């Protein structure tokens, strides 16, 4: 019968080191021996060093029935152990082989049972002592609150239980770079706490094995690997997967790495969280060291303590911040906001908008306008950023703490490094910003030189001196609860913008309905005035001219002159009436042309233009400083002239006319049927006044409260004023008391560029 070893002799190179087959080394560590048996209990694998522990060689056992070599009783003990699930993988099987006591760990590798035997420990730890230590640890664990405190306690407890010189809790980041998160070591040793190590120190295939086999021992770093032999039965690529082995030989690169660190023995316990390798408990000893199964189990429990508490402790660590975020979100969503685009000014200035995700700046883009607060880039860069995000991702949400990795051009000369972006639909967006956070990382050696190549091949680095790295161009990482809060508010803001759009559409239709209603009323009035008021002077002209024609022979010069004057007066009345109708019908909705208008300039020019009329009526006009408003200059001049003319026309005969003009000195909010006005101006006179029930009707076209004989005019003056204020998006009202006077109040719309948050 032929035999062969299955030692993997593949040369590790720069191109294959990430794929080194460390799970099939074909060798073990020498502090035990290994036997591999088939399902029908024939010995198919055996290590060369079996002769060190038993008076037998591997040649003598390979290809034989297990019972024929070790006895049927031993085989039955092993089978009973395998079939007893409660015991398997907790404590190894204690068994006697050829008069010597061994502890055997058993696992199945495909269709092979792998038996790993180590000599029974001469000094057996008392389970009661280990149990007592564990209970004490659990009691202390309950007194810790943060994950870091718990890991520090585990490091201390593991070193106390195992007796290793150094115990480190090693935590991985997203790229599997490691950090010594907690540590307990001998006082004479240089601490490694806080040091970082590159992901190449533990390559991908090693991390995969740490997930499959959660406890790994190297008893003596200077060991000489023992080859595994098998029956040479011409099977192609015959090998033995040792992923779950306790004796598996380690990669020569890893052994050299540990030697460079001066380590003599190691124990590694995997920390697995959500099916991912979260970290390791790494125990180092500076001489040879092995530990009993009881101690191994107790150490493994330390890892279970950490992994069972990661979610809870991380939640505790984040709980205070998360509570603040939730409180800010509740306050923000609970704001009593007007259903108008102006509400964005209030929102952007609210501190809670930054607090919900602990951002330093925020910008809202709506209808092509940018609202900003805190740390935010220029408008051009914001639009460019949105364009780049759209090109890169179709998702509504995009987050990064390294903008330079995603959009290098935008990152240049930017005052931010991290963003949370959320699309609000309809071309609207919200973006939160964080600034660059410059971080100093201490590495255990230069991470760029973790693998060294020379004439003899690949080697791990031999320098572990602290290597400082300054990390720039990144912000602090967005926590998940911060991202969630941002997303929740983005949805709330989206709903607010939808309500604003619906409200504006409703207002638009309401306004159009009012305009249509008033237009129909105007057409009826114009039709009436055309058939009535215009016919009356026409009849007079016709009557006078007919009479003159019939009396040409007898009419005197004085009579002709009087008749012609009467004809001219009637024609003049017609011309004035037609002019007023023309003015009225020419006023359109011109809100798109609104501009900043200084009403002081309008009033001064109006008084100057009407100076002669004011003097003729011996009127007194008093006024205070007027505001700047959003309107149209020539319409405001027409408005002021009409209001003052109206006051002079309806002056009382009992007293000299007096007009007092006052105004709001600061913007004010006046809610009235879905409308918001920012400024008002009041014209108060001491004229004849009117009954309160006519407060609305006096603004209707061609409406007169008095006869033509009492007060001349077309009845269009105040209707023209109302139409002017409608044209600029404002309003006009009247208040009157008979024989006391009239107040005309005009209300101006808010400038869209103004913020209402200061009102």
From TrEMBL:
EC number, UniProt record: 2.7.13.3
Domain Histidine kinase: 529-752
Reaction equation(s) it catalyzes: ATP + protein L-histidine = ADP + protein N-phospho-L-histidine
Annotated PROSITE patterns: HIS_KIN, PHYTOCHROME_2
EC category name: transferase
Keywords recorded for this protein, A-Z: ATP-binding, Chromophore, Kinase, Nucleotide-binding, Phosphoprotein, Photoreceptor protein, Receptor, Sensory transduction, Transferase
Keyword Repeat: no
MF terms in GO: ATP binding
Domain called Phytochrome chromophore attachment site: residue spans: 146-304
SMART domains per UniProt: GAF, HATPase_c
InterPro entries to which the protein is assigned, alphabetical: GAF (IPR003018), GAF-like_dom_sf (IPR029016), HATPase_C_sf (IPR036890), HATPase_dom (IPR003594), His_kinase_dom (IPR005467), HisK_dim/P_sf (IPR036097), PAS-like_dom_sf (IPR035965), PAS_2 (IPR013654)
Keyword hit for Nucleotide-binding: yes
Family under the similarity heading: In the N-terminal section; belongs to the phytochrome family.
Protein name: histidine kinase
Lineage: Bacteria, Pseudomonadati, Bacteroidota, Flavobacteriia, Flavobacteriales
């Amino acid at each position: 019968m032929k035999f062969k070893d299955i030692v993997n002799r593949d040369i590790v190179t720069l191109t294959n080191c990430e794929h080194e087959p460390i799970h099939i080394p074909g060798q073990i560590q020498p502090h035990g021996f290994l036997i591999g048996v088939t399902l029908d209990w024939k010995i198919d694998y055996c290590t060369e060093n079996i002769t060190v522990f038993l008076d037998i060689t591997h040649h003598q056992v390979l290809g034989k029935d297990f019972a024929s070599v070790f006895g049927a009783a031993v085989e039955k003990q092993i089978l009973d152990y395998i079939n007893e699930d409660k015991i398997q993988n907790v404590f190894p099987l204690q068994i006697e082989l050829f008069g010597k006591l061994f502890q055997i760990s058993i696992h199945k590798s495909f269709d092979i049972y792998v038996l790993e035997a180590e000599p029974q420990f001469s000094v057996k730890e008392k389970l009661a002592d280990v149990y007592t230590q564990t209970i004490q640890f659990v009691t202390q664990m309950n007194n810790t609150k943060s994950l870091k405190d718990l890991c520090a306690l585990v490091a201390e407890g593991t070193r106390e239980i195992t007796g290793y010189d150094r115990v480190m809790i090693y935590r991985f980041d997203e790229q599997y770079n490691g950090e010594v998160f907690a540590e307990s070591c001998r006082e004479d040793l240089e601490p490694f706490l806080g040091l970082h190590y590159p992901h190449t120190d533990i390559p991908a295939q090693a991390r995969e094995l740490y997930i499959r086999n959660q406890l790994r021992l190297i008893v003596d770093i200077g060991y000489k690997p023992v080859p595994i032999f098998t029956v040479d039965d011409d099977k192609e690529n015959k090998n033995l997967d040792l992923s779950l082995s306790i004796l598996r030989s380690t990669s020569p690169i890893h052994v050299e790495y540990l030697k460079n660190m001066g380590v003599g023995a190691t124990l590694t316990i995997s920390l697995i969280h959500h099916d991912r390798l979260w970290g390791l408990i790494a125990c180092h000893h500076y001489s040879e060291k092995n530990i009993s199964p009881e101690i191994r189990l107790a150490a493994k429990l330390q890892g279970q303590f950490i992994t069972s508490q990661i979610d809870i402790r991380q939640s505790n660590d984040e709980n205070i911040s998360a509570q603040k975020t939730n409180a800010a979100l509740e306050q923000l969503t609970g704001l009593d906001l007007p259903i108008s685009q102006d509400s964005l000014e209030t929102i952007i200035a609210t501190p809670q908008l930054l607090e919900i995700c602990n951002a330093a700046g925020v910008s809202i883009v709506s209808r092509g306008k940018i609202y900003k607060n805190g740390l935010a880039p220029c408008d051009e860069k914001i639009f460019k950023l949105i364009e780049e995000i759209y090109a890169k991702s179709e998702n509504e949400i995009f987050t990064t703490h390294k903008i330079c990795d995603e959009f290098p051009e935008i990152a240049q000369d930017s005052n931010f490094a991290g963003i949370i972006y959320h699309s609000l639909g309809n071309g609207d967006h919200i973006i939160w910003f964080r600034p660059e956070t410059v971080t100093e990382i201490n590495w255990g050696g230069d991470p760029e030189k973790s693998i060294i190549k020379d004439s003899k091949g690949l080697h791990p680095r031999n320098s572990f001196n602290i290597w400082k790295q300054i990390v720039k161009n990144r912000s602090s990482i967005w926590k998940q609860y911060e991202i969630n809060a941002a997303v929740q508010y983005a949805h709330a803001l989206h709903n607010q913008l939808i309500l604003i759009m619906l409200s504006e559409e409703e207002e638009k239709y309401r306004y159009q309905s009012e305009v249509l209603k008033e237009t129909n009323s105007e057409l009826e009035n114009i039709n009436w005035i055309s058939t009535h008021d215009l016919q009356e002077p026409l009849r007079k002209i016709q009557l006078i001219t007919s009479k003159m024609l019939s009396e040409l022979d007898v009419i005197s010069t004085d009579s002709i002159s009087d008749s012609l004057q009467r004809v001219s007066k009637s024609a003049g009345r017609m011309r004035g009436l037609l002019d007023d109708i023309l003015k009225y019908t020419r006023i359109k909705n011109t809100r798109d042309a609104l501009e900043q208008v200084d009403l002081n300039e309008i009033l001064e020019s109006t008084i100057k233009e009407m100076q002669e009329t004011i003097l003729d009526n011996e009127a007194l006009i008093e006024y205070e400083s007027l505001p700047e408003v959003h309107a149209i200059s020539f319409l405001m001049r027409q408005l002021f002239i009409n209001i003052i003319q109206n006051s002079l026309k309806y002056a009382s005969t009992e007293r000299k006319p007096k007009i007092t003009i006052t105004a709001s000195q600061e913007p004010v909010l006046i809610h009235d049927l879905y409308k918001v006005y920012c400024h008002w101006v009041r014209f108060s006179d001491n004229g004849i006044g009117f009954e309160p029930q006519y407060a609305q009707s006096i603004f209707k076209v061609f409406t007169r409260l008095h006869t033509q004989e009492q007060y001349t005019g077309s009845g269009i003056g105040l209707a023209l004023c109302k139409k002017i204020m409608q044209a600029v998006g404002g309003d006009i009202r009247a208040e009157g008391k008979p024989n006391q006077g009239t107040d005309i109040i005009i209300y101006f719309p808010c400038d869209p560029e103004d913020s209402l948050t200061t009102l």
